[in-house]
Specification:
Alpha-Beta Plaits; 2 domains; globular; 3 helices; two-stranded antiparallel ribbon; alpha+beta; 4 strands
Length: 118
């Protein structure tokens, strides 16, 4: 997965781009998570990773409204500090560094991002 950093030059008025186009470009900024929670979490949602996270970036927590309706937990790509504390505590080995995510679970990167872009 690559970082898409299209910010439309962060342009000045002299760049020739309309404000609407620049706003669209800025909205395309994508920050991938350092870690992704994949398919083994479905049906488990064990919160050991939530407890281990030093920056509180894994959601939904057991006390959050959408915990019951979401199939799995997600790592906030903007909050994650890439510490890896969540990986060894996951009882179903569902958490992967982005570069180690098995190809068959690539869609979970997008799914994680979609959760935080609600």
């Amino acid at each position: 997965m690559t970082l898409v950093a299209f910010v439309g030059y962060m342009a000045t008025a002299s760049s020739g781009f309309s404000p609407e186009w620049l706003a669209l470009g800025a909205a395309m900024l994508v920050i991938p998570a350092a870690y992704v929670i994949a398919e083994p979490c479905i049906g488990t949602k064990d919160t050991a990773c939530v407890d281990a996270c030093p920056v509180d970036c894994i959601h939904p927590k057991a006390d959050e409204d959408d915990h019951e309706t979401e199939e799995l937990l997600y790592i906030d790509p903007e909050e994650c500090i890439d510490c890896g504390a969540c990986v060894p505590v996951c009882p179903v080995s569902a958490i992967f560094a982005l570069e180690d995510l098995p190809e068959k679970w690539d869609a979970f990167t997008e799914r994680n991002a979609a959760y935080y872009n609600k």
